[in-house]
Predict the structure of Citramalyl-CoA lyase, mitochondrial.
Amino acid sequence: MYRFYRVCFNQRISFSKGRTLFISAFPRASNNSSSNIDTMRPRRAILYVPGHDRKKIDKLNTLKVDCAVLDCEDGVAVNKKSEARNVIGEIAESFDFGKTEFAVRINSIDSGLAEEDLMSVLNFKKYPDTLMVPKIESSDHISWIHEKLKSHFKCTNNSKKLNLVFFVESAKSLLDLRQICEKAIDLSKTGAFRFEGLVFGSDDFCADIGATRTENATELMTARQLFVIVAKSFKVQAIDMVHINYRDSAGLLKSCEEGARMGFTGKQVIHPSQVPIVQKAFSPSEEKVEWARELIKRFKEHQKEGKGAFTFRGSMIDKPLLLQAEYVVKMSEQLNE
């Protein structure tokens, strides 16, 4: 028998054998954006690969990672930045990413390197699927991205918008996140990007506020919860912090499960060995999909009979749980395409 407990933004399903599943709910935003988290490609794991390291890039063919981020920022030394731009340009033209999302992370706008990175990206013969921008501090930074893309993005009738994912890495950025997202939503309506996600940069955030990073990350709890709330209010994905000790599989799994309970949709990874653990943790299990399909079926049956809320496997079911079930099924179908 299933027992259901509503916990913040998540639905916990406890089984008689002691297993627990979590279903993340996705609150609908009040803005006029056409974005919808249900229609975005899954980003359960986003793997950073130094843009100048051809050996590591070549290994992407052996992985089934949702999103590969060829990096121009933290993973690349200052004297390798130019090489990274050149290598990524060559990779964009010749490398077969298959079902893996091809993303490029440029340097931060305030670094003075972002424009050169972005101009390089926009001169590639093949654009990346997604542009990732670190250390967004204000809505002015979003305007900067919009203006640069507007001026240099080679838009044709057949070209699609670049997906935009940006990073929150400071106290100011977190406190101003609502205004920043509003600007991104507004400019995406007529601009060359589609605002799809937020990434929480935990280590830079800790450095900014003077916090000491601990194994259980209690010092980041409030920030992570606020981050998720804002992301979900704008219907964009929320990508959780890196688990730095890539050899600590048990700790990684624990961190993933905690993030999923909080409402995060995926996690940053820095080593290929982390990918399968993370992607499994942020995927609906067979049991969860079976529960969701059956709930949807029963809901439709009760609607035909003119009934509203009903009891399903020991719990009262209403519209919010139906939305969660529909999301589970939709995500499962995306992952099996």
Summary: The mean pLDDT is 85.
